[in-house]
Amino acid sequence: MVSRWVVINIPAWLLLVALVILVAGGAVLIQMIVRRRFPKLTQDAHNDATRFAYGVIGFVYAFFVGFMVSALWSQINNEDSQARSEGAAAIQLARDLTVFDTADRDRIRLALLQYERAAVAEWPIAASGSDYPQADSTLQDLYAAYQQVQPRDDTQKIFLAASFRNLEKMYQARVERVIQACTDEGPSWLLWSVILLTSGLVLGCSIVFGVEQPRIHYTLVATVGVLVAVNLFLLLELGHPFTGALATSPEPLRDVIHVLSPPSS
Hints:
The chain has helices at 2-9, 12-37, 47-95, 102-127, 133-147, 154-183, 189-208, 214-238, 251-260. The protein is mainly α. InterPro entries: DUF4239 (IPR025333). The chain crosses the membrane at residues 12-31, 52-73, 189-211, 218-236. Keywords: Membrane, Transmembrane, Transmembrane helix.
């Protein structure tokens, strides 16, 4: 989808600046044309109707944008929670290695470390909608490393069973994360149509509002244009939970790598 390509390939600051210039600048340019071609609009004869329409449209616009921002932010929070659950399960696997024999412990630690590195490398690839087979391969190696353990006593049996449960939790969290990242298309075209329509109505009402002083009118339209541009930027960034400046982070997986990596000398 176009919105995902935009968020992935255009830096956040550049996207914000471009939207402000495009929306606010375009609105001011249209306003200049309207004021010259329809000079009667600068009078306040139609302001009662415009003021009522502006109030209704502004309320609907504010409600809709607020609802969208809340829903999209909740989606990012859910993905953050999913990533933390995945990282927590992996850290617990690392903590439980102490009860196993040295050979088993070293083999599992290496397999878990390789998987976490592959999972971090997979993160941006999955966010762009592509597969990363190496992550699947290293996860299979991790399962195989645990299956080779032959517990010597009840303690190792208990911890091995717990490790398999945590491994399953980590696997399920990763599957959900990868599916969500690969299939994420952001808000549908229907929602974007409503967003753009209400944004255009808000700008249109500010343009046709009767203000005799050009400087005041231009300032009003530019301010509304900047507000609309910022809202569009926010919806674009929030619409994709795994890409962009506001996306969820693979930091929980990096924490696992930090726990598993030997201390530097």
